[in-house]
Structures are given as C-alpha cells and as structure tokens.
Amino acid sequence: MKTLTVALGERSYPIFIGQGLLANPELVRPHVRAKQVCIVTNETIAPLYLAQTRALFSGFDITEVILPDGEQYKTLDVLNQIFDQLLAKRCDRRVTLVALGGGVIGDMTGFAAACYQRGVPFIQIPTTLLSQVDSSVGGKTGVNHALGKNMIGAFYQPQCVLIDIDTLKTLEDRQLSAGLAEVVKYGLINDLPFFEWLEDKAEALYQRDPSALIEAVAHCCQNKADVVAADEQESGVRALLNLGHTFGHAIETGLGYGECLHGEAVAIGMCLAAEMSAKHGWISAAEVQRVRRLLVRMHLPTTIPADISCEQMQNLMKVDKKVMDGQIRLVLMQKFGQSVLTSDYDSALLQDTLNTGYTEAA
Ligand code: NAD
Ligand code: GLY
Q1: Same-domain pairing of 183 and 165
Q2: What are the tens digits of pLDDT across the range 244-261?
Q3: Which domain holds residue 297?
C-alpha cells in the first residue's frame, strides 16, 4: 500500500492507495470522531460495495443514503435527500459522512458534509478511476446548476481518502477511459515524463493492469496533493488542473448532464486546448496529434459532438469559474507539457478552434 499526504497544516489528511483496502478497517476507523456514520452511495454502487463498506464501520451507528445514479442527479434537489436522512436519523454534528462512489457521489457528499450543521467530517472512498485520480482529493465539493456545471459548492477537505483499485474491476470500459482522460491531463499540465510514461502504458492501463493502475493513481494523487497544498482555493496554480475543462464543461452543459461523460468532455477539451495552442504557434501540429493519438488509444473522443453548435459552445464557455470581469481565461499549452492559465490569446483563434473542432482534421 502507498500512503500520501495532502499537507494542509491541521487539516492535513492521508490518501491510502492499494488493493484489498476495503477489507482493512484499521485505515479508516481512526478518522471517525464519534459513533454516528452515514454512508452515501448510489443504486449502482450499493449492490457492489455497500456491504464491504458497512463492515469497515461495524460497531458504529450506521445510516445509509442511496441516491439515484447519474450526473443529472448532481443537484440541490437530490442533495436534500442526504439532509432528510441525516435529520430523520437524528445525526448530530459529530456524524462522519462517507462518500462511496465516483465523483458525483464524492462531490455531493462532500458538499453535504460542508453544509450539515455548518460542517461535519467526511471520508472519501472513490470507486471510479476519475474520482481516484482527481475528484476525491483536494476538497472541491458541490452540485450542478441547470445553467452551469459545478456552480454551487464549497471547498471542504475530507478526513482521509481510501483508494482501493480493486473496485475498478467492476467499472465499465467507457468509465475507465473517462478516468484516463484526467490522468493524461496531469502529463500535459507540467509533467512531460509522465505523458511519455502514459504513451508507453496506455494499453496496460486500459487492460487494468494493477501495477500500472497503482502507479498512475499514486502519481496523479501526489501531483494533485502538491498542487492543493500550494493553492487550496485556486488563486493560482490550481487553476491549471482545469486544462480542457472550460471547453469540456460547455459540452457537458450544452448536451445535458450525463450525455457526454465528464472525462470524455475533458478529453475533447484538451484536444481543443492543444489545437488552439498550436494555432498560436506555441506547440506544433505534430504535438497536437500526439495528444489525440494517446486519447484515441485510450478509447476517448477528440472532437466536439455535432449536437452542440459553435454558438452554444461560445455562450456556455462564458459560464465558467475562471471567468473574470467577463473575460474567459483558458488553460493553454505554452509549450508541450507545460500549461498556463491565460487571457492573453487571440479570440479569433478561439473562434477558429471551435469552428474546426468538429472534425479530426482540426
Ligand atoms: P460518476 O460518479 O457518475 O461515476 C460514473 C459511473 O460509474 C456511475 O454510473 C457510477 O454509479 C458508476 N460506478 C462508480 N464506481 C463504480 C464501480 N467501482 N463499479 C461499477 N460502476 C461504478 O462519474 P465520475 O467520472 O466518477 O465523476 C464525475 C464527476 O466528478 C463530475 O460531476 C465532475 O464534475 C466531478 N469532478 C470533480 C472534481 C473535484 O475536484 N471535485 C474533479 C473532477 C471531476
Ligand atoms: N479538478 C480540479 C481541481 O480539483 O482543482
């Protein structure tokens, strides 16, 4: 097992990464403050992992909340179901919430923990690759609004993160690919050697080779832990973790939540960011192809879906947390393997990138 730390002073917490960890109660139990535990999961994950998770907390007073499954349920309305259960079971302010699931469950449970009685502890048990390499670490929590993705939320850190990569055995291929998109993101932000390692290991990762998965998850978590320790509330370097996301969130919102998976939208967004960087002369056309080729080997899409118009893309990109004084700021590649957050780009080239982003030849 690997143990990493997110260093945030008194709010520091461990990330445990390995196989068989859902059978090891000693890792999580020290992070529960009192008798009450509330496990939040969804109807897909409950039959797979709820019994094991319940066993982790045997002896505690356990409440369970089983939410509907899907990005379209990441709403304030559905969040209320968590509060309904907590109140019905008379959970007090020392209750520990446990997020058992992917990024949707993790983001919602974390936000519920941030709000319930003005803040109760929570533990992340991420079960998708995307949530293991990204969303369970760093304390971004929240829900979607019909007009914008992740627009309602809070920064709120967990007590610990338990990553059992054995849970990935039951994940659908499409979801595994979506997680791989976020893995590639770390390489493109500031870690060219990791991108090259991914070019070597793409098939092993897609085939779920455990040692390749553990290495990739640990590498991404370490990268994310470092970024969060340096800039918890995204006033600087953390914004780079949004590479591909301004384009991606527009695609997710425009198509309707759940149609294009978050990771798929990020894959398309990274291609658009690469293309736009090439149009500025910052990276080469061959490097754009390198990004596309790796994503295609990971079974990811690389072009904007035809169902969303260029005009919709432009309008939706304006609803982004990085927008400042009405100006869209984008994460682009200053050179290959080194991204920057910038508003210093040519808007005609943004328009051109969107226009041509519907075809491979873009
Ligand atoms: P998800 O939570 O919807 O999970 C994907 C699907 O896999 C769901 O149907 C889920 O029920 C199922 N599933 C989960 N674990 C499984 C398992 N082990 N076996 C079989 N099926 C399983 O999607 P996701 O990709 O994990 O997360 C996407 C969400 O994360 C988005 O809402 C995105 O905005 C958010 N996100 C947040 C952050 C952050 O920093 N907080 C970062 C990235 C993404
Ligand atoms: N996934 C982006 C972040 O956590 O900042």
Answers
A1: no
A2: 999 999 999 999 888 899
A3: 173-356
Sign of the dihedral defined by the CA atoms of residues 216, 217, 223, 226, in that order: negative
Give the pLDDT band (50/70/90) at residue 361.
low
Which residue, chain included where needed, has tokens 């995204």? 234
User: Is 193 part of a structural domain of the chain?
Assistant: yes
Give the nearest ligand 2 atom to 238 CA: 5
Ligand 2 centroid from CA 238, angstroms: 7
CATH value at residue 217: 1.20.1090.10
User: Which residue ranges have their beta carbon within 6 Å of ligand 2?
Assistant: 134, 138, 140, 238, 241-242
Prediction pTM value: 0.96
Domain count, the chain: 2
Residue 343 region by backbone torsions, left for phi larger than 0, else alpha for psi between -120 and 50, else beta:
alpha
Closest ligand relative to 240 C-alpha: 2
**DSSP string covering 114-148:** HHGGG---EEEEE-SHHIIIIITSS-EEEEEETTE
> 17-34, pLDDT tens digit by residue?
999 999 999 999 999 999
Nearest CA to ligand 1 atom 29: 103
332 and 207 assigned to the same domain = yes
Q: Which residue among 74, 201, 262, 290 is the active-site one?
A: 262
362 assigned to some structural domain? no
Ligand 1: distance of its center to the CA of 284 in Å? 33
Q: What is the mean pLDDT of the chain?
A: 96
Distance 2 CA to ligand 1 centre (A): 22
